[in-house]
Amino acid sequence: RISRRIPLRAILIVPFVVQIFGAVGLTGWLSLRNGQQAVNEVTSQLRNEVSTRIQERLEDYLEAPRIIAQINQNAINLGHLNIQDTASLTRQFWQQRFLFDSVNISAIYFGGEEGEFIGLGFQNNNRWEIGRAGKSTKGKFHSIGIDSQGNPTELLEIGNDYDPRIRPWYKSAVEAKKPTWSDIYADFKELRLKVTLVQPIYQNNNQLIGVVGVDFVLSHITEFLQSLKIGKSGQTFIMERSGFLVASYTSQKPFSLKEQEVTRIKAENVDNYLISNTANYLREYFGDFSKINQSQQLEFPLNGEREFLQVVPFSNGKNLDWLIVVVVPEADFMEKINVNTRTTIKLCLIALFIATIVGVLTSRWISYPVMLLSAASREIARGKLNQKIEVKIVNELEILADSFNLMAQQLQESFINLEKTNAKLEQRVEERTAALRQSEEKFALAFQASPDVITITNLADHKLIEVNESFIQTTGYSRQEVIGKTSLEFNLWVNIEERSRIFTILETQGKIRNQEIKLRLKSGKIRVGLLSGEIIFLDGQTCLLLIINDITERKQAAEALQTAEAKYRSIFENSIEGIFQTTPDGYFLSANPALAKMYGYSDSLQLITNITNIQQQLYVNPNRRQEFIDAINKDGEISNFEAQVYRCDGSIIWISEKARAVHNFNGELLYYEGTVEDITFRKKAEAALHAEQEKSEHLLMNILPEPIAFRLKQDTSAIADYFEESTILFSDIVGFTPLSVRISPIELVNLLNKIFSKFDHIAEFYGLEKIKTIGDAYMVAGGLPVPKENHAEAIANMALDMQQEIMKFTTDIDRQFQIRIGINTGPVVAGVIGRKKFIYDLWGDAVNVASRMESSGEPGKIQVTTATYELLKNKYIFEERGIITVKGRGRMLTYWLRGKK
């Protein structure tokens, strides 16, 4: 057998070395772990940032087709656009392409139910072309050039047969019967994939007349993904839940071409190693791409290295459901962490070596005097108590040696005293044995004679050791039936959980007093008793002494009394509603405390005593008491009778009464009885709700034009209306920025409020729509949201009035303000978009040109474009400014508006 004793040297060396190694190793492990946590946090932030940017860009790409499709549907439904007039359709599409960049919109078209097709598309040669198909082209697809005004020029190409009704985008609209995104499909003319937002158009009889479509080319997403920087070698891609690739970080196209047939590629099958393995992992992890319902960050091994992965569902809500995937290799971030890890391992080994050398030397120095102490201890164990040692190497060991010598001396003295004590103990044991025998005889007599049930139970196994005569008479069991058994075996306890709780208290606290329990007799009857118990010791065993006082009859009498009293006062005293009895002539016969408290009285007696005429003293409107009586006399009872009443302090509350008439056997009316509920809070809440609804209505009318506010209340979807002609005015206060440095913000805001309030009054006077203010800039438009023929004249009049009003204000150095104004007329889109903080706004090239007229103007002057000049030249005085260069528009001819003729 191998000895389990450990040498002192090992005890001194091993823990010391283990502590050093553990401390250094833990430090290295924490360093490595912190580095990995830092990598996890950085990659998590990177994945979140990249996926968020992709989501935002996709929403931007897909918003433009939705707006244009909505505009075209509204124009057709309102009769502003004739689908039979191809020239009008072409011009409409041509004007709309200026509203958004060609990246967002690659084609706008209309396909009719009779097979006619007219559209405008941006081709791969960076040129806009008109597409026609139908009866006029004998079913062929004609590509037609277009000039700068949106008019068709020469025929460029005659393509293959084309029927819009069999195209994927048309079928998607017919199937959905509402605005929806089509499935991804190959372009009819160009070698590219695209997706179309389609809007079915119906007549008033719900008959389909055609489909409006706006295309988005998926290659633009690929170009955006390639512009992203994702670590050193991270990649991202977008796929459908079916697994087919939509776009990716790589230059590989998401489709293959074989025998002039385009075949889409699944993400698992692309040539890119990282993308294909990432897609395979996602399918294995989720089982099905359709189970990815929320953004998740994952990691998976690839060639022995971790890959950090994030997958984010992207849904447009109109049949477009994609998955955005971002994957970043851990190796991009782990190079420096691995170098630190190798350095830490080297330091651990060096520390271990030094600790081992120091431990060996220290153990030799300490172990020698300890060996001397060990040898002396063995001699004492053999009975040789006259041992004495001297140690002077270590101070603590010297103290230990002195203590050892003193202990040896005390042991000698203790052995002598022990012999004397043993003799005294033997005598005391004999005396106590005789007293115990006498006590047991007294206990046995009291045990059997007690009228209460008494049992003695072994604490270890809960088996009964003894029961008294009262137990046998009360339970009906004989001694032979219970001794040596637990109370569970003969089903004595009614509640087993109660038994377990009582035994637990006895075992932990040692005693228990007056616990009410229920016992089941042999006959099956249930008795109630008060149990007291205590732990005792009998013949070396730990036992439980339990005494049970039968209180069954007393308990039954008490419960019967409590039940009667509860029934008598429960409803009347404890009801939270007021309860009353009143005479027909207006007195209270009785009232409960709840009613007295409701009416502000200290108790029921005060209420009954003080109110002697309910009609005059209680009801705010005395006629309500008679109406209360008439209603009961008619139907015999009344419910939800609401009225205002006075409380004791004169305050008024609202109540709701439910009452009935009580008659005697002869049918004579005795009194009215019923309940009262305080509904003051409900009435106040109803009034507050009504007031808040009126405030909200007024606030909405102040924020938005009335027609737009009305439409928004009917339908919270985006509102976008196209106006062929509207006049827009931009103004800016010259010198306002330097002024803001010289005066306080409060003074600046108060001054702006005075100036813009004057402008608001002018806009309201001419029936114009204020759009917004930005700093000291003010924007207003005419001809919307309700078309107006003289919108240009109204804007011109407002501009002239604004010049007059601004001269009434001076700066902090007593100089008059000057204002710079720009005006333009043209087509715009106006409406409300988004789901929060609604604002009525304008979009379109005409808005940008009006802004440029203001920024390129001169202080104190009004600059207008040729379009506005042509509308006003017969009624207003103009001065030709000449040709100027306008940012984003090139060279333009503009005019100064001087006044009215």
What share of residues is helical? 40-55%
pLDDT < 50 runs, ≥5 residues: none
The CATH superfamily of the domain at 704-900 is: Nucleotide cyclase, GGDEF domain
CATH class of the domain at 704-900: Alpha Beta
Fold-level CATH name of the domain at 704-900: Alpha-Beta Plaits
Query: What's the main sheet like?
Result: 9 strands, antiparallel
Radius of gyration: 49 Å
The global form is extended
Number of strands: 34
Would you tell me the overall average pLDDT? 84
Strand content: 25-35%
The CATH architecture term of the domain at 704-900 is 2-Layer Sandwich
Q: Helix/strand/pairing class, anyone? A: alpha+beta
* Total count of helical runs of at least 4 residues: 22
Distance between the termini: 126 Å
Task: Write up what this structure looks like.
With 901 residues, the protein is α+β, with helices and mostly antiparallel strands. Among the domains are: 219-333, Beta-Lactamase (2-Layer Sandwich), CATH 3.30.450; 384-449, no CATH class; 450-556, Beta-Lactamase (2-Layer Sandwich), CATH 3.30.450; 575-684, Beta-Lactamase, CATH 3.30.450; 704-900, Alpha-Beta Plaits (2-Layer Sandwich), CATH 3.30.70.1230. It contains 22 helices and 34 strands. Strands 1, 2, 3, 4, 5, 6, 7, 8 and 9 form a 9-stranded antiparallel β-sheet that branches. Strands 27, 28, 29, 30, 31, 32, 33 and 34 form an 8-stranded mixed β-sheet that branches. α1 packs antiparallel against α6, α6 (335-381) crosses α7 (395-449) and α19 runs antiparallel to α20.
